[in-house]
Amino acid sequence: MNRSVIHLDLDCFFVACELLRDSRLKGKPVIVGGKSGRGVVASCSYEARHFGVRSAMPIRYALQRCPDALVIRGDMDMYSNYSKLITTIIREQSPCFEKASIDEFYIDLTGMDTFFTSYLWARKLEEMIHRESGLDISFGLSINKTVAKMATNEGKPRAKLEVAPEEVRPFLDPLSVSKIPQIGKQTFRLLSRSGIRRISTLAGMPVAFMEQLLGKNGRTIWERANGIDDRPIVPYNEKKSTSAERTFSQDTIDIPYLRAQLLKLTVGLAFELRQSRKLTSIVTVKLRYTNFDTHTKQRRIAYTANDQQLIRIVHELFDQLYERRMLIRLVGVKFSGLVSGFVQMDLFEDTGHQTALNNALDEVRKKFGKGIIQRAATLPAPDEQSPKH
Ligand SMILES: [Mg+2]
């Protein structure tokens, strides 16, 4: 049986949020990104795209292509709030959806009586999102995630594209292989050199040839070119989390030591987030006292994977939580409300230097294990080598 899968993607999300705040930006080339020398484009308006500006491009290059562009430092708090508003609207309309990133969703409507009913449903949802948030959203409807996403991309902005089962082949065939989401620059070059530029060509190749050319990805890419993608919608669950805790060999009330342990846990978890290209939006700190009383405190925050921000929040939660009367036997940190996203988002915090440092530290951790380097503050002072009472 054919499935009906909808892919939704907010148009120029960060820029669109800025336009809602300041309508004078309308019709102008706008870039959201870091203003520091190392900043990159996180999002840009169609007017800026017209000049060849693209996301992830260094701001310096972007301004060479479009000197009149207005560069705005991003406001992750505002974008996170809009992202959560859209998530709430989608959740109310459809119990089974996947939040693929801060501004991207998949919904499985398999079981609706006709493909056309699914299309009308998607139109209604798109109108509702526009009415309640003011944001434009694109959608593609098709038989699986890949074709739905490609339909969105082809129709942007304000895409409302339906690729019915019998239209999948005619839709895919003329497109460049670079339009398949799994194909990056390197794979594209490799395929081009073998004379494979259109999807119809790729789809007609023997699968064994593709496996020879691209290794284990060869079959997946061949399947995508043939409109095959069995991946299910993974329901979004705010509770999905990553956490770490530390039980002390001796219970302690040594505050600097406790803060240092929390910092260490936070740095490790933030590194994991960045490695899996995820961002968190809920931070929880846990304390267990010597009598096993356990207390937690949680805060919703703007999406981030930035060490500095997370350390600050964890320490604030600890300060609010700790009553300073009893010995502590365990501390823990948990990140939940996770979405996929890029570390580059942090760049518009104007922490170019900080991000470069983090990237360098992450490289070392990847090579030698995450315990190898710590910020100086995580190391106990010489007279604090063991927890004190
Ligand atoms: Mg988008």
Structural key phrases:
389 residues; alpha+beta; Alpha-Beta Plaits; Dna Ligase, domain 1; 3 domains; five-stranded mixed beta sheet; globular; binds magnesium ion
Note the topology.
Blueprint (H helix, E strand, L loop, with lengths): L4 E6 L2 H9 L8 E4 L7 E4 L1 H4 L9 H7 L4 E3 L3 H18 L3 E5 L2 E5 L6 H19 L3 E6 L2 H11 L4 E3 L5 H5 L12 H9 L5 H6 L2 H8 L2 H9 L15 E12 L2 H21 L2 E12 L4 E11 L2 H15 L6 E9 L2 E2 L11 H17 L21
Helix pairs in contact: 4-5, 10-11, 12-13
The site of magnesium ion (MG) has 4 residues, from strand 1.
- Which strands sit side by side, in order, in the main sheet? 5-6-1-7-8
Here the CATH topology of the largest domain equals Alpha-Beta Plaits
* Average pLDDT for all residues: 89
Query: What does the largest sheet look like?
Result: 5 strands, mixed
Distance between the termini: 66 Å
Poorly predicted ranges: 379-389
Number of domains: 3
Question: How many strands appear in the DSSP assignment?
Answer: 13
Tally of separate helices: 14
Tell me, what is the CATH class of the largest domain? Alpha Beta
Which hetero compounds are present in the coordinates? magnesium ion
Broad shape: globular
Q: What is the CATH architecture descriptor of the largest domain? A: 2-Layer Sandwich
Proportion of helical residues = 40-55%
Secondary-structure-based class equals: alpha+beta
Strand-and-helix sequence, N→C?
EHEEHHEHEEHEHEHHHHHEHEEHEEH
Write down the Rg.
Answer: 24 Å
CATH superfamily of the largest domain: Reverse transcriptase/Diguanylate cyclase domain
- The proportion of strand residues reads 15-25%
